Records
---
Amino acid sequence: KMMNILKLISVFLGLLILQISILNNINFNIGISIFLYLMFILVLPNKIKPYLLLIIAFFAGLFIVVYGVEKTGVFESLIESTIINTTFHGITGVHVLSLIFSQIVSNVPYVIIMLPVFNALSSDTLWLALAASSTLAGNATIIGAMVNLIVIEVASKNGYEIKFRDFFKPGIIVTIITLFVSILILYLEYSWGIIS
C-alpha cells in the first residue's frame, strides 16, 4: 500500500515539475529528465529488468548534470578557447572536444551542451563534424556512449565479463582512426564545395 502511495506521489511530482518547466520557460530538458527519473525510479521498477532500470536512471541523471553544467558554464572556457570553424584546425577541434567530453558526460549529453554553440555557428560542415565526432568518440570507453553500458550489462548477465581496460584498448585505437578519417572526409568535402 505504501508503494502505491509513493508511485502516486512520484507521478504527481513528475507532472508538476514538467508543467512548471513548460509554463515558466525553464529548460524543458530538465523538466522531462526529472519527470522520467521519478517515473523510472518509483513507478516502473517491476516492469523493467533491474539492470536496464539502473542504466535508464543513470542516463536521466546525466541530463540533470548536463543542465547544471550548462547553467554554471563549467566547460565554456575550454569550448571558447577551441577554434570552432570550417578550417582543418576547427574541424579537428570539434573532434577533439567530442573525444574528451564524451568520456566525461557521455556523447548524447555532450551534444546537448554544444547545441547553443553550434546554433550560433549555423554551418552544415560543423553540424556534421559534431554528429560524426560525438558518435565516433562514444566508442573510446565504456562510458563514452550509453549503448556501451547496455551492451556491457547484457553481456555480464550472459556470463561475459568486459572490463574497462578490455574495452578501452581496442576502443581508443578504433576511435582515433575513425575520428581522423572523419576529420579528413569532412575537411575535403568542405574544401571541394560538397558541403557548406
---
Amino acid sequence: QRQMCIRDRASAVFIDSQTVMCVVNAPSATAGDATLRVTVDGQTYSEDRVAFSLYDLPRVTSVSPSRAFTNGGSVVSVEGSGFFLSSGLSCWFGTTAAVGYFVDASHVRCEVPAAITAGVVDVRVSNNGVDLTADGVEFDYVDQIVVEAVQPSVASLAGGLTVTVTGANFDSVGEDDLLCFFGDCLLYTSDAADEE
C-alpha cells in the first residue's frame, strides 16, 4: 500500500466534529490502493488512517438487449471496461440507479428500473455509486404491450398454424423485434387429467 503524500493533498471542508469532506484532486491522482489521513498544517498527519482506492473511470460500449418496457424488470448485460466488484456498483438508466451485478471486468448485469414515460435514456455504470462513466449508450424504453385476444385460441400439436393477436402498443416495439411466446405450461381439463 502506498501512503497518500503531500502532492495528493486535497482541500477539506469542516462539517461537524465527526465529519470532514475532501475532494480528490484528479490531476495528481493515480489508480491504486492508498491510505487517507487528515492534517491541519500540511506537515503532521493523523495517526489513524483509512484505506482508500483510486480507479480509472469505467467505460460502457454496449447494452443488450437495448430496449425494455417502461414497467422495467428485465435484465440487461452491460459491456465495457474497468468494472470491479464493490458495494457501490450500479447501472444508471438516465437518472435512475439500479444495482449492478458484477460478472467480470468487462461485463455487468442489471435489472432495468421502471420509467415514467417511454423514450431514450443513456445507460452508464458507476463503481462507487457516485462517479458515472463519461460515456453512455442509448437504451430505449417502450410502452408496455397489451395483449387482449388471440384468434384462433386453440391449435393442434402439429404446429404451423398462424394466429392473430390483437391488443395495443405493438407499434412501440418495432417490426423486427416482435416475438410471440406461447408459455411453458399446458392447462388440462379435469376430464383429461382423470383419464391419465
---
Amino acid sequence: EQNAPPSPIAAALDGVRGLVGDAVQVKSGFEAAIAAVLGPIAEGVLVEDRDSAFAVAGAARDADAGVVDIVIAAAGMMHPQFPALPGVVPAREVVTAPEGVLGLLSYVVVVDDLDTARDAGPALANAELGGPTTPVTRRGEVYTEYSLRAGAGASRSRLELAAEGVVTTEQPFTARGEAVVGDDRRDCREQADGSG
C-alpha cells in the first residue's frame, strides 16, 4: 500500500509539523542511502509528540485515507557506539533531522558499497550494539541480517530531488510521493479525493 498524501488529513490538526522529508537534511552524496532506508516514511507526517501521532492516525482512519506513516519528532533516539570501520559512517552523522527521525536511523550505517557492507557485517554484528545494524550503500542498497535489497529504481526520492533543488516544500506530491513538476501540477487535496 502507498502513503496517502498527508496534507488533507493533517493540515488542520495541532502538533503537525508537515512532511517528514521536509524536516530532513542529508549531507551531499548520502541522499540515495537515506532515502532508501527511510522509504515511504520520508513522505509521511511529522508530528510533535505521541498525542499528535494518535490524533493524525485517528483522522486518517476516520477519513479512510489509506496508509499514513507518522513520525514523532520528540521521540528519543538510541546512541549505539559503532566500531570504527573503513567506508562505514553512522547514518545519524550525515543527517540533520528531529530526534524521532534520527531514532529511526539509530542502527543504520551508510557504507561505500556492497563489498564494504559484506566486509563490515561481521564486525557490526559482533559489536553488541543493542540492536541489529542495517548497512545501506550510498547507492541505496539495504542489507539486513535477514535480507538484501539491491538494484535501483527509475524514480528519485523527495530527498534526492530536494538536494538538487528540483522541488521545494511548497511543491505538491502524488500519493506515491513523487513530485508534481512542470505542466502536471495538481493539488494533493484533489488527488486525495479522486478529483485530480
